Every structure is written in C-alpha cells, then in structure tokens.
Amino acid sequence: MTRRLISTGSPFEKKAGYSRAVVDGHWVFVAGTTGYDYASMTMPTDVADQARNAITTIENALADAGSSLADVVRARYYITDRAHADAVFEVLGAAFGEIRPAATLVICELLSPDMKVEIEVTARRKDARPGDRSG
C-alpha cells in the first residue's frame, strides 16, 4: 500500500504544512484536530461544541481514508482547562464509549486562546489481514 495524504481543504493545513490525515498501509494517522467549524469558518465558544466539531472532522477524515471511529486504537485529548474535562468526556463517551481506544488526556495551552480542545487519533483500517505486519 502507498502513502496517501488527506486534506479537509482548511487554509491551516497549507499554511502550517500538514495533512489532516495520513494513510500509511493499514494505519490512519489523524492530526490534532480542534473544534473549528469549517462550514461557518468559526470557532464555537462552548467546549462541548468544539469537541463535537473535532469528532466530526475526524470522522470525515477517517471516512476519506476508508476507515471509521470504530477503527481508532489510540486517541490523545488536549484541553486548556481541567474544568473542561467533564463536558469533553461526555462528547468522547458518546463517540468512543463502545470503541474504547487507548487514550491520554493532557491539560495544556493551544495555539489560539479560543481553542479549548484538540483531539488526535490513530486508526487501523479493518481491511488489514490478520497476521499482516506490513501496515
């Protein structure tokens, strides 16, 4: 399998020199994704809305890669305030409750003060054959 780059068409991807996701063999690596709403080109103020937007963007990138949230094996969550954890966990529980990837939560600053959550995931596409170590 070849390496394939996936873009959302966001101006941030070109400016910062990254892809929304990279498919490499059976693996899909989705870049850190904030809660930006690409339909309205705005960032909601509510952290739960930001988390939902991030999950939607991630779902779309995974779908473009021939994958889905069900294939996620690793997730990293970054929030700017521990007070946001419960609201973000509610969104994450709805998205990953049955999938339960290995996950890490980090409390940190993000690039812009209006960003409150960033999510990155790694998925292994279901088309991977058992015992296949090539991807």
Automatic annotation (TrEMBL):
It comes from Amorphus orientalis. It comes from the Bacteria. This is Enamine deaminase RidA (YjgF/YER057c/UK114 family). Gene3D superfamilies: RutC-like (3.30.1330.40).
